[in-house]
Amino acid sequence: IAVLMGLLFPAIGAAREAARKAQAKNDMLNIVNSIKAYYTDYGKYPCAANNGDDANDYFASKKGANDQDVLMNILRSQLVNGSYTPEQNTYNPRRIVFLDAPLSKDLNPDRAKSGVDSDGVYRDPWGSVYRVRIDSNYNNQVQNPYTANAGFNPLPTAVIVWSLGKDKAGGTDATGGPDIKAANSTSADDVLSWQ
Question: Which of 53, 88, 108, 164 could make an S-S bridge to 84, C-beta 3.0–4.6 Å?
Fold first, then answer.
């Protein structure tokens, strides 16, 4: 029985991890599709335009000005503390719900997983914030936050979303993280919308 249990527990852990990755991929697809639907309705992206290169594309990583909570509030069109935010009034005046994201079972930002926390931040199944990059300079490409092993750099798309995975480490900016395909890389468990 002990031998069978020893064989069973790793398999259960691997199955749970595969389910978390599948959920993250589904969440990211929903975010990408909601931003594309926003573009279809409004003819622009839900962020300020920039005149810089792709490294300056809109980057949402946490709670704060021009970050993920602002983007999610615009896409979800939810009241924030009883009223709409200035960003919602500017970027989604028709109050269209582009993203129907679930609330996390635990809304506390320090413990929230798999959904939107009390700060309006969308968290992955491991509790990290989904990273989002939008083509805010409108040149039909965004900077790849990883090395070339994760795809083209820049990527020929308008929106990318990624999760840092179980270890909560990996590509977080435009400089390029470590090789995502190397087994010992902190990026090896990351989930990318463009792969």
Answer: 88
